[in-house]
Amino acid sequence: MNNNVKRSGLAFAVAAIMGGSAGAQAAVEVYNEDGTSFSVDGYFNAFYVNRDDKVSDVRNSDVKMGFLPNTIGFNFSKEMGELTLGGRSSFWTTINDSLQSPTDTSIDVRQLYATVDGDFGQVLIGKDFGLYARSNIFLDELLMGFGSPGAATGVSFGNIRTGYPYPNPSAQITYRSPDLSGFKVAAGIFEPADTTPGADSEQSAPRFEAELTYSTDLQGVALTAWLNGRHQSSENSTTEIDSQGLGYGLKASVAGFSVTASGFTSEGDVPVLISDGALASEEDADGYLVQGSYTLGANRFVVSYGETDSDQGDFETENTSFAVFHDVNSNFKLVAEYNMFEQEIKSSGARAADADTLAVGAIVMF
Question: Rounded to two decimals, what is the model's pTM?
Answer without folding.
Answer: 0.91
